[in-house]
Amino acid sequence: MTAEEIIKKIKSLGxxxxxxxxxxxxxxxxxxxxxxxxxxxxxxSKNIIRQNQDKQKNHNLALKLWDSEIHEARILAGLIADSxxxxxxxxxxxxxxxxxxxxxxxxxxxxxDKSVLAKKKISEFATRQxxxxxxxxxxxxxxxxxxDKKMSDKDFVNFFTLIKRASIDERNFVRKAVNWALRGIGKxxxxxxxxxxxxxxxxxxxxxxxxxxxxxxxxxxxxSEKVLSRLK
Length: 232
Fold this sequence. Notes:
Elements: H1 3-12, H2 16-24, H3 38-51, H4 55-67, H5 71-80, H6 88-97, H7 101-110, H8 116-120, H9 122-125, H10 131-147, H11 153-157, H12 160-166, H13 172-186, H14 190-203, H15 209-222, H16 225-231
């Protein structure tokens, strides 16, 4: 499938009701939106990969889809791009183009968390001023906590400094990602659960409504019977 054929497919699957629903969940990108669901996008990505096993061609296709400036095409780009072929320039281009939390999260969970280059830039992303660029750092931490089985407990404890610094950022899509990162670390294993709860109690003392919310919400989930039972 060519980029043009894929975009035509996306347009054919457009749903105005979905667009309205996305807006209610804070998804209001500057790029063109057609309201295609994630299950449909995953189906398209699987078809692309099944039809073409050439990773380089699929990666090049992903770059073209990103440049289309279509919301769903950008999510799809994150599903078919090759993490090993990403360059720092490409990562920066995509991050600077993030304009909604769902694109950030999907790209981080499906692509960036597999890229060595992206991992190395977490601390840099965490200091960015644009809301979605900053969210990238913490969405990526959450993705790594869930997917990367090779990282050590120490690697994740080292992220606490970044989480603490960002815990006073009142912007909705930053604070929720910071909270997600902390909860993700605390659900990785029993030891990190204890470390995350201890850390959350520390940031709860910060004179910030946002920090207190992040901490309280994380503690509530990380001390829940559901989480603790799974970690036994």
